[in-house]
Amino acid sequence: MTAAVLPHHIAIVMDGNGRWAKRRFLPRLAGHKQGVDSLRRCAKACAERGVKVLTVFAFSSENWNRPTDEVDGLMNLLAGALAKEVPSLARDGIRLFFVGDRASLSAKVQAGLAQAEQATAHNDRMVLNVCFNYGGRWDIAQAAAKLAAAGQPITEGALNDAMALAHVPDPDLLIRTGGEMRISNFLLWQSAYSELYFSDKWWPDFDEQALDEAIGEFQRRERRFGKISEQLVQSPS
Predict the structure, then answer these.
(1) In this predicted model, what pLDDT tens digit does every residue of 175-212 receive, in sequence order?
(2) Number of Cα atoms under 13 Å in the Cβ half of residue 93
């Protein structure tokens, strides 16, 4: 792959865990466990390919509406994944950020997120943003509220700097697995000029080859950002 056209930032809606499990007559939580394995594999593959930022949608603010046993299982799965995965992420040079509204999370979960971020704070090979209890509308609203509370004018630039993902550039490529063609309240502000790619694969089946196919499709597209093709030829930057 040509480094010059490699997406700097890839974002993924990891969809299809439940359907993957249902097809195998397994409980939905088994699909989410398999999804953690897929995330581990994908993060490693992105780092190896030179991607600098990976942002994944792990738990949306709407997911609280799911059955209580599934939500409880997801919370326990998160706690277990933190204990198991953070040491390897730290060794692999991956810096972890949890992005979302932490106020409604338990004190134990909040402490676990903070500890995981601190344990990887020195890494600079790749940033892994895990959007947990996140929603794109929430992000815009919290940014506007932050500016209003500080008495700052609400401008496009100020809002951008107040977003929960202000520490990374906007995603170049946004992938959704599971066959659905929508972004489901994910990175509404940040994906304004992202290339969208929809995969029929359920997230547990999204492997290195599927990732390479998505990157390959990205490399075949022309990103104009409001300009015309002739302008890009005249000024490649």
Answers:
(1) 999 999 999 999 999 999 999 999 999 999 999 999 99
(2) 11
